[in-house]
Amino acid sequence: MADQWYYTVDGRQTGPVSAAELKKMAVSGRLKPSEYIWRDGFADWVKAKTLKALFPEDGQVSAAPLQFADSRGDSRQELGNIPPGSAAEDVRETDAEPRPGDAWEEDDDDRPRRKRNKQTGSGTLIGVIVGVMVLVGGIVTGAILLLRSGDKNAGPANEQAVVDAVTLVREYQTDRNAADQKYKGKTLLVQGPVIFRNGAILHLETELPSILPGVQPGTTDQVLAKFTNVKDCAGIAPGAVVQVQGECKGFNHELDVELHHCKLVKQVGQLPFKQPQAKNAPKFNPPKFNPPVVNPPNQQPVNPPVKIVAGKEVFRVQNKLSPGDAFDKRRANSYCKIHTFRMNAGKTYVIDLMTNIQGFDPYLRLEDSQGKQLAEDDDGGGFPNARIFFTPAQDDDYRLIATTFGDRQSGSYTLTVREKQ
């Protein structure tokens, strides 16, 4: 099994073949240096060019990354090499003499000449005009063929030329200014394998070690293809070899080459790739989480901080709230108790509602004898105690309502009233 090799052709897995057959394929050019190979014992797929036995340095096969040719191939032809039957050959052969091996028959060749010999002067003039028209038509046809051939074989600046992601990033790593002049601001057709997708961005792997200072070992510089709509690249899985077209923006701050306003042209294959390591990714080992132990309230008396206000204490009561109490009409999910105390007009009173246990947050409300709310407070006496300053406009039996800030809280409290001096 160790002699059985697998390889890729345009991103498609093929094989197995023997080592000897694989060598023949490399020598003949059927196996390119940029294709991937694998056999039993390999941890992952590797590029064929990494094996010196397949592509020796003095061999005919180049070890440089494969330049993906345009799908239309090399269509440039010299006019003299155009195959028989084409329009250009018809122009070239219009007035030619018969040659050995030609398909012309003698009668077909002699008959036009016999007719020309019998023509009058006007016929000669017509012949000259026709000949000129044919000559002009041939020149125009040849020019069109040459222009079309030139379009098909334009350089990297042509929008239809395919640029390998490895080649693009390597040129930027080598000479950023020169690469900007060649690519930046131009629409490129770039081919490469997708290592992962981040929203509307495809990361094309290059396996070129990053030149960004301080990155983790194994980090590579990549091509980031940014799509306008995430739906345009949502179906692309890691390992897919794709062609994307977009505007080259050059290196970003992490020294990845960015393509903007991308569109997916096609997927040309599928290759296995390992998940990359993000640049500048810190090695973070979170500390072991030990949840705090929360002990329930033990109903032990506490001494919460209270802001002292001088005055004569005229009312004090200690009580508690429990599930058997009524719900407050304003704080519908809080238990309450109502205490009545008569206060005189013109005097200022300090009303304090203080907790007696840990975890109990009292809330104080003040109403007149008719049930009209006059004031309310939560933490005016210092958290969690409530305090209200009140100067009545008239003598009345006022309602001091002890309730809680939180829902359905139980606990003991102290309510006091002092006349402020």
How would you describe this protein?
With 421 residues, this protein is of the alpha+beta class. The protein has 4 domains: 5-50, no CATH class; 79-152, no CATH class; 162-270, Beta Barrel (OB fold (Dihydrolipoamide Acetyltransferase, E2P)), CATH 2.40.50.140; 311-420, Jelly Rolls (Sandwich). The protein has 6 helices and 18 strands. It has helices at residues 19-28, 87-92, 106-118, 121-152, 165-174, 176-183; strands spanning 5-9, 12-17, 36-39, 46-47, 162-164, 187-198, 201-209, 220-227, 240-251, 257-270, 311-321, 337-343, 349-355, 362-367, 373-377, 386-390, 396-404, 411-420. The strands form 4 sheets. A 5-stranded mixed β-barrel has the order 6-7-8-10-9. A hairpin with a 6-residue loop joins β3 and β4. α5 (165-174) packs across α6. The longest helix is centred in the first third of the chain and has 32 residues, at 121-152. It starts with a strand and ends with a strand. The model is unreliable at 60-120, 151-158 and 281-304 (pLDDT under 50).
